[in-house]
Amino acid sequence: MNQIFETTIREGKGLPDLSNTDSYQVSLKIPARVKDKKFILFLEKISKEKQITLSFSEIYELEILRSKKIDSNIKFKDKFIELGIIEKFGKTKGTKYILSHNYYKYEEIPGVYTRIRGIDRAKKKELILNHIIREGSGRREDFIDTFPELKANDISNLLQELKSENKIERKGNDRSGYWVIKN
């Protein structure tokens, strides 16, 4: 099985499909079409430049990351970061890993990198401020609509940071309150 997985990944065909396997039979579908030849060429380029050989386990983990686009559980993260194959963003429990900007630049699709990476914290706060300036005020619900990928607590934290920076202030009560630019 390791050899089958390694061969399909090294040929840029992705992971074999075992989803129809049950207690009585093994169903193995091997992709015939190359999914991402540039991914394999990128890994070969890194291997040559850094004079390293990636193990099957490492290539397998990178293929899973390539297909998922973003992951928080990377076993060989330190090695991959040092080699410039992946990048991390976020802090503590929120740390996530993506393929590096170098990969997306090599693939000639840097816009995909930007979409996956998302907007940094400073830009989110800037968008909140711009909304409040444009609309005259803003409610937390407005920002939940703006940032659907964030939890309500994350948005509250952004608002509290802006308040601590003396850029906005809260008006009204907890239920019907809103945020305005601080004078």
Characterise the protein shown here.
The chain is mainly alpha-helical. The chain has two domains: 2-117, no CATH class; 121-181, Orthogonal Bundle (Arc Repressor Mutant, subunit A). It is 51% helix and 9% strand. The protein is built from nine helices and four strands. The strands form two sheets. It has a two-stranded antiparallel ribbon with strand order 1-2. It has a two-stranded antiparallel ribbon with strand order 3-4. Helix 1 (2-10) crosses helix 3 (56-68), helix 5 (101-107) runs antiparallel to helix 6 (110-117) and helix 8 packs across helix 9.
Whole-angstrom Rg: 22 Å
Structural class: mainly alpha
User: What is the H-and-E element order?
Assistant: HHHHEEHHHHHEE
In total, how many domains does the architecture comprise?
2
Low-confidence stretches: none
List the helices and strands and how they pair.
Layout: H1 2-10, H2 37-50, H3 56-68, H4 77-83, E1 86-89, E2 96-99, H5 101-107, H6 110-117, H7 121-135, H8 140-146, H9 152-164, E3 168-171, E4 178-181
Helix pairs in contact: 1-3, 5-6, 8-9
Summarize the model shown.
With 183 residues, the chain is mostly helical. It is 51% helix and 9% strand.
Features:
single chain; 183 residues; mainly alpha; Arc Repressor Mutant, subunit A; 2 domains; two-stranded antiparallel ribbon; 51% helix
